[in-house]
């Protein structure tokens, strides 16, 4: 069994995931890499701090360094007396392409340890947003995928550019919803819309997002940051308190986040996800990585006993 585990951990998981260059909506390791101040630009005007994710070559994806830097900045500005409202946006063309699995699974480990890392670190990612004590406005400047969508819905509001799209591809990946979306989406937008997003894979654009209540409003791309600053300054003047659309409480959603994180960890190590990755890679013509995922799903009855 140790030999099989070594093969799965050091070769199969690493090669398959890095070879796919695929993005998902959850994180496996929140502490990969070091804080890099060049990844997120910061500016404060009239008590409004804007954080701009600035890694356009990687579509502002939530790599390990990006997530570590984002978390540090959230903690910093939570205590900053000069910051009353936070805006989070991305450098064009993407808002954020989600969490990169290429940076997440790069170390060999026991399947049970991997399961724990998935659950613990997925929970930690969304707790960063839930614990932030000041209003957060998302300025969605372009496509948003997975975790950056679900985390955005936990913020006070989203202003969408006409170039924005929102995609939560959990069903296609064979994984379970995260970011409290299993509960929050229905409360925020109704059961029919929640099903379209989570089960049917609907990818609304900015205008559609505003029509269903996912975004507060949609604006022309060149007016996005000006309008977002106006809204945020208004919040400062009215001394707006942190809220979650749909009426959920931080305490409740942290419990939901924990439950979802455990289910997500199960899903990442289960056959539907492995099979989805196999089919995705095979369709892309990546025969080597696809063969590895085929091996993983085929050999799961053996290594799953270690979970």
Short account of what is shown:
The chain is an alpha/beta fold and 307 residues long. It contains 13 helices and ten strands.
How would you describe what is shown here?
The protein has a single domain (about 1-305), classed as 2-enoyl-CoA Hydratase, Chain A, domain 1. Helix content is about 50%, strand content about 15%. The chain has helices at about 1-20, 65-80, 100-105, 110-130, 145-155, 170-175, 180-190, 190-200, 205-210, 225-235, 250-270, 270-285, 285-305; strands at about 25, 40-45, 50-55, 85-90, 100, 135-140, 145, 155-160, 165, 215-220. The strands form three sheets. The protein has a six-stranded mixed sheet with strand order 2-3-4-6-8-10, with helices on both faces. A two-stranded antiparallel sheet has the order 1-5. Helix 2 links the parallel strand 3 and strand 4 (about 85-90). Mean pLDDT is about 85; it is low at about 1-30.
